[in-house]
Design brief:
Layout (H helix, E strand, L loop, with lengths): L13 H9 L6 H19 L1 H5 L11 H13 L11 H11 L1 H4 L2 H11 L6 H30 L7 H17 L10 H7 L16 H6 L9 E6 L5 H15 L4 E5 L4 H12 L5 H5 L5 H10 L8 E5 L5 H15 L3 E5 L13 H19 L2 E7 L22 H4 L2 E7 L6 E8 L8 E3 L14 E2 L14 E2 L2 E2 L5
Parallel strand pairs: 1-5, 1-6, 2-3, 2-4, 4-5
Antiparallel strand pairs: 6-7, 7-8, 8-9, 10-11
């Protein structure tokens, strides 16, 4: 074996290390492990590029040059690759040659790509939950090393030991404050000076599918934000979710996932037919007594609505982790923008305790973190405690069953309830993070026979509202900004 260990700079990829081992050269184990990590991550990115794109990992985080170039190529080719498909070899080779022509042109590039793509992918979960955080941590550690190296070199070269020690402690404390090395936040003046409305990424906002709430909230919830829609048992939560999904199909601009913990696919299909043809009752579809001509009429009514942008997942008795897996899978493979979960209290905690309220609070936090990690907006439907909706009583913001900290986690809360005779459905905006307007009440029209929600909503002027301007021009302790 060679007595001198080669450094990482002598190798461009894992294949070079294997050649070195075949030639009886000694290879540092830690170096080999790091190159393997990057190789596995690139292989998985070629296989599932849209999934790995959600990791937002910059190419500079890769220490090995070939993998840095490969990652850059995958990022730039992403708009050309259909969701759920791997990156074509021909596109990769062309992009490689463009980024590093002298090395990747001709047979060398083909051999390199054949070697990488000839190995099995490491697995999406492993790549996202271990490899991506590992590369993040390594890059940050290298940054920390650079920041402290100058101070270390001064230890034997300065007479002012006390000052150097103070500088070192200050630097170490800044590093320990946060994972990004203790970066100092921007001043408010910086925020206003750097704002450019033309550069705002509108893709960060996803319409809720309920036009009145979207109008008041500046377009809808942001990715990673939580909207909670509360309702009583049998109060139409699932019908409202179906109405929202149909609104997405009609707009055709966003992909949505509906996770049902209670209603099976047959029931959802029956509601769809009733929505697109009000002459059909869901129970007729279920019992196969619906007029075939009306079924055909419903299919024809779909028209240009993009129902292929909507996904339905049946998750009865699913745990919170299983729901999170469904969210990740549909985000990575189907590129969904918003996820509706119907309903919260039917989800099983991963580790059940005797405190339902604590279990629910933990699940809400876990689901919201998952939505933020993968970049989707999240809508949770929640059931009320029974005492909160008897005799047509109006629910409060803490009415949700085993609510926990749900009202604190949510950016949007919309509560529905029914009149005492069950003939009228009301709705109330209980919380809007991006607007001072809360407490607005509406009547939600529904079809008499099918139960389908109709639009537009009608303001409810029959009940008092806490949103009337105060004499000093303020609402709820905030300055009134007029209509939003």
């Amino acid at each position: 074996m060679a007595t001198e260990k080669p450094t990482k700079l002598e190798y461009r990829c894992l294949r070079d290390l294997h050649f070195a081992l075949d030639g009886k050269q000694e290879v540092d184990e830690e170096l080999f492990r790091r190159v393997c990590w990057e190789d596995e991550l690139v292989r998985q990115a070629i296989d599932t590029p849209h999934a790995l794109a959600t990791s937002r990992l910059p190419p500079v985080y890769f220490e090995v040059i070939d993998y840095r170039i490969a990652w850059q190529a995958i990022v730039e080719l992403l708009p050309l690759v259909p969701v759920g498909q791997s990156v074509p070899a021909g596109l990769l080779l062309a992009k490689f040659a463009e980024l590093d022509g002298p090395y990747f042109r001709g047979q060398v590039g083909k051999n390199w790509l054949r070697y990488v793509m000839g190995q099995p992918a490491c697995g999406l979960t492993y790549a996202l939950e271990y490899l991506v955080p590992t590369l993040h941590a390594r890059f940050e550690m290298r940054l920390w090393k650079v920041r402290t190296e100058d101070l270390i070199n001064l230890v034997d070269k300065t007479n002012d030991t006390l000052l150097l020690h103070s500088d070192w402690r200050r630097e170490a404390y800044a590093i320990s404050l946060s994972h990004d090395g203790g970066a100092i936040g921007k001043t408010f003046a910086d925020l206003m000076r750097e704002w450019n409305a033309e550069d705002r990424d509108n893709d960060k906002i996803v319409p809720l599918g309920l036009k009145e709430i979207d109008r008041l909230n500046g377009g809808g919830p942001g990715r990673g934000e939580l909207a909670v829609i509360g309702g009583p048992t049998g109060g139409g939560k699932s019908y409202l979710a179906e109405r929202m999904m149909c609104n997405y199909a009609q707009a055709g601009t966003h992909r949505a996932l509906y996770i049902s913990t209670e209603d099976n696919p047959d029931l959802m299909t029956a509601r769809l037919f009733a929505d697109y043809c009000p002459k059909i009752r869901p129970r007729e579809v279920r019992s196969k007594r619906a007029d075939p001509a009306l079924i055909d009429e419903a299919r024809a009514s779909v028209g240009n609505d993009r129902l292929d942008n909507l996904y339905f997942a049946y998750a009865k008795k699913a745990t919170c982790s299983q729901i999170c897996d469904l969210i990740r899978r549909h985000r990575y493979l189907c590129d969904v923008d918003i996820v509706l979960i119907d309903y919260l209290q039917a989800i099983m905690p991963d580790e059940q305790s005797n405190q339902k309220t604590n279990d629910t609070a933990l699940m809400v936090s876990q689901l919201k973190k998952c939505a933020d990690d993968v970049g989707v907006a999240l809508v949770l439907f929640s059931q009320y405690a029974r005492d909160e909706y008897r005799n047509g009583a109006e629910p409060s913001i803490v009415s949700c069953k085993w609510a926990g900290e749900i009202e604190n986690e949510a950016e949007i809360m919309f509560l529905t309830w029914q009149s005492e005779d069950g003939k009228i459905t009301f709705g109330k905006i209980a919380k809007l993070k991006w607007a001072p307007t809360v407490g607005r009440r509406y009547i939600l029209p529904r079809h008499v026979d099918t139960g389908v929600f109709l639009e537009p909503w009608e303001p409810d002027f029959t009940q008092p509202t806490d949103n009337k301007p105060k004499p000093d021009g303020r609402r709820n302790g905030r300055r009134s900004g007029g209509e939003i």
